[in-house]
Design brief:
Blueprint (H helix, E strand, L loop, with lengths): L3 E4 L9 H17 L2 E4 L13 H12 L22 H13 L3 E4 L3 H13 L22 E4 L6 E6 L3 E6 L6 E4 L7 H11 L4 E5 L6 H11 L5 E5 L2 E2 L17 H7 L3 H9 L14 H7 L10 E2 L2 H13 L3 H14 L8 H11 L8 H9 L8 H7 L4 H13 L6 H15 L4 H12 L7 H8 L1 H12 L3
Parallel strand pairs: 1-2, 8-9, 10-11
Antiparallel strand pairs: 3-4, 4-7, 5-6
Helix pairs in contact: 1-9, 5-6, 8-10, 12-18, 14-17, 15-16, 15-19, 16-18
């Protein structure tokens, strides 16, 4: 049987990193097996839907490099692919369950249900399940929901790709609502019907969905549908091993934010693919095709996946370094322009600026931070850096370099490099004792980007002013 998998987002907000991983793993599995990847929109929770929710989901999946075979914009013969357009289908199958005595009408109001639950709590009931008081009620002329009559003394067993054998007892699940009073299905009923009718063969999703599985199996079994194979991926946790919460502000969690910060989609695809999946290789820089070729659901992790921000920055830095000059410039110029950096400068100046920081960038927008850090107006030399330039021979070196820079008309990176070497030769300074004091004297830092290129970008006036400031402390 050909593999058919689905990613089924609710249009309730932006594409979250956890949902992106679910989509990506399903995509990789489908592509690795020569199967179909379906995007189905689960929009029955109207109160939580946002106007741009569907567009946000689809546009940022595309940005990541995830395409699909079937969805609302690509009919593969199993549509509609949006649940609110499938209401008649759910009503048809709900009626089948009602006719078979597997479902029943529940006339209880929300107030009555809340009161019953509160009473059960007071009485010390261990399980706060619905009392079934409407199970044998005659038909009434008032609104009703449909409840699934959970079988007694039944064990639901399935093999999970990640977790192995999983079992649930029917006694742990109360009679649950499959159709609300407004004739809109609940999540578990609609998902089960859709997975069956769309011939989904494998359901890969986060482990927070595992408790939904028995309800979906109940529906499939009652309707005579073939069960798909399930795989529940472990949680993504932060660096403190706490479950990744949307309220955790220490981690950027939405794909749109990474896009806006200038992360590269290929790097994000690579990083997310490694959140809970271990390919049979030690290499971490893997292309989309390589990840497809390596993907094996048997290698999905059984331990929580740690969202390692340093690893993400490392991977994105590697992808940035691999960009050609034009692509890198296209990535960085919008951030520089927005920050007002380089107004009036020519292309050569921007090329030099980008060359200076290319190897240090973890993401595109960081170039603004790096620029301001190294080219800030306020300048001082202090601490360990100051102690370093107080060593013997440094003051003559810097004085000589200052005079050479002041007397040279046209400065560029190559000329500056030559003047540094000439100054070292004239004062007997070389190696670390030549370049480190020079770097400190013009940047205030003991480490940084390519020295001649950085000095060229600073400009003659600023170089002389900084050298004078440093010399005044020696």
């Amino acid at each position: 049987m050909s593999v058919r998998v689905r990613y089924a987002p609710s249009p309730t907000g932006h594409l979250h990193i956890g949902n992106a991983r679910t989509a990506l793993f399903n995509y990789l599995f489908a592509r690795s097996q020569g199967g179909k990847f379906i995007v189905r929109i689960e929009d029955t929770d109207a109160a939580r839907n946002v106007d741009t929710g569907i567009d946000d989901q689809l546009s940022y999946l595309k940005w990541l490099g995830i395409d699909w075979d079937e969805s609302i914009d690509k009919d593969g013969g199993y549509g509609p692919y949006q649940q609110m357009h499938r209401l008649e289908t759910y009503q048809e199958f709900a009626q089948k369950l009602l006719d078979a005595g597997v479902a029943y009408k529940c006339y209880c109001s929300s107030e009555e249900l809340e009161a019953e639950r509160a009473w059960m709590k007071e009485q010390g009931y261990e399980k706060l399940h619905y009392s079934r008081k409407c199970l044998h009620e005659p038909d009434q002329d008032k609104p009703y929901a449909l409840r699934f009559k959970v079988p007694d003394d039944t064990t639901y067993t399935f093999h999970d790709i990640v977790k192995g054998k999983v079992q649930f007892q029917s006694e742990d699940v109360g009679d649950w609502v499959i159709m609300k009073r407004n004739n809109v299905p609940t999540y578990n009923f609609a998902a089960a019907v859709d997975d069956a009718l769309m011939k989904i063969t494998h359901v890969l999703r986060g482990e927070d969905h595992i408790t939904n599985t028995p309800k979906q199996l109940m529906v499939m079994d009652a309707l005579g549908f073939e069960r798909p194979t399930y795989g529940h991926m472990t949680l993504i946790v932060n660096e403190n091993q706490k479950k990744l919460s949307k309220r955790d502000e220490s981690i950027i969690q939405f794909i749109e934010q990474y896009h806006d910060l200038g992360f590269l989609p290929e790097a994000m695809f690579d990083f997310i693919a490694l959140l809970g999946f271990s390919p049979n290789t030690k290499e971490e820089i893997l292309s989309k095709q390589e990840l497809i070729d390596w993907f094996d659901p048997d290698r999905l992790s059984t331990s929580p996946a740690t969202f390692d921000q340093d690893k993400l920055h490392y991977i994105n830095n590697r992808y940035i370094k691999a960009l050609d000059d034009e692509s890198l410039k296209a990535l960085l110029l919008p951030f520089l322009n927005e920050a007002g950096i380089g107004k009036g400068e020519d292309d050569a100046w921007f090329d030099s600026l980008i060359a200076v920081f290319k190897d240090r960038l973890s993401y595109g927008k960081q170039i603004v931070e790096l620029y301001h850090d190294f080219f800030k107006e306020s300048f001082s030399v202090s601490g360990e850096a100051l102690e370093f330039v107080k060593q013997d021979g440094v003051k003559p070196l810097l004085s000589t370099l200052r005079d050479k820079l002041a007397s040279t008309e046209d400065l560029d990176a190559d000329t500056i490099k030559s003047l540094i070497k000439e100054s070292g030769k004239a004062t007997g300074m070389k190696g670390k004792m030549l370049f480190m004091p020079t770097r400190i004297a013009v940047s205030g830092s003991m480490h940084g980007p390519d020295l001649p290129q950085m000095m060229n970008l600073l400009g003659k006036a600023k170089l002389l002013a900084r050298l004078d400031e440093t010399l005044s402390k020696l």
